[in-house]
Amino acid sequence: MKKIVFALMMLLSSVQLFAQTDQVEMADAMRSNGKIYVVVICIVIILAGLLIYLFSLDKRLKKIEKKS
Amino acid sequence: MNKTWWKILASVLVVYTAVAGLLLEVPHLAILNETIRNLYFHVPMWFAMIVLFSISVFYSVRSLLSQDRNDDIRAVESVNTGIIFGLLGLLTGAVWAKYTWGQFWSFDPKQNFAAISILLYFAYSVLRNAIDEEQKRAKISAIYNIFAFPMMVVLLFVLPRLQDSLHPGNGGNPGFNSYDLDSNMRLVFYPACLGWILIGYWVYTIRFRIRLLENKQNSIR
Fold first, then answer.
1. pTM of the model
2. Out of B23, B74, B113, B138, which could bridge B59 as a Cys pair, Cβ 3.0 to 4.6 Å?
3. Looking at CA atoms only, how far is residue B9 from chain A in angstroms?
4. SS3 call for B30
5. The domain containing residue A38 runs over which residues?
6. Is residue B143 part of a domain?
7. Which residue range(s) make up the domain with B125?
8. A37, A44, A65 ranked by CB distance to B18: nearest
9. Distance of residue A23 Cα from the nearest chain B Cα, in angstroms
10. For B52-68, what is each residue's pLDDT tens digit?
């Protein structure tokens, strides 16, 4: 059984060798369109950070308000 | 308004505009090129500022009628938050102008009058800090604020229209609404305005609550 599975795995791993054409398939999404997606992600990270910071400020204020 | 849902809504809207504002299709226009996307970020700053200043006028009128200390604090804190948004609007406007009009500050009527209207509100906070007696301060600054608001509206929306200006919507220059702001852009522009107005309101409430706590502590001592 083990041998068969091993053989199957080897077979499957070799499949991509045949599938290779002149264009290599890569995770290109982040690098396409002049890399604008990278900028979008940076802006979203900054915005998310600031917004989370605002939420945490709000929380801290609520605590102090309850105390006093 | 002490709930969380509108704060989450504001966050979602603002993050949505950052993503959709950079990725969705926009009209292809000469000179503007991709900077047309600035519409989603530059203009909402002014909208948020105007809403905050309107809130401030509302509470100034109320504080004159009610003599309530809290109304006075609300008026001040919304002006303080509005000034931040106004400065952001000026800065983003200057950067946008550099790459479309050629200079950061070309003494365009819109830029000049926007700067003056911010100065009006600087004068408001200087005036406040100059008066020590509390009731007098509340009264005088409320009256000043009620006069400053229509001045700001005239400076931003009336005077620039009477002169030659490069800014859209002024001096015979068509505004974005007339033909550029297609339905695709509205999908981002309106949520952006609502989102930033809510964020502005949120910051204002935080400032107001801090001020309340400070006053409480000061009165205990």
1. 0.83
2. B74
3. 11
4. coil
5. 2-67
6. yes
7. 45-178+201-220
8. A44
9. 26
10. 999 999 999 999 999 99
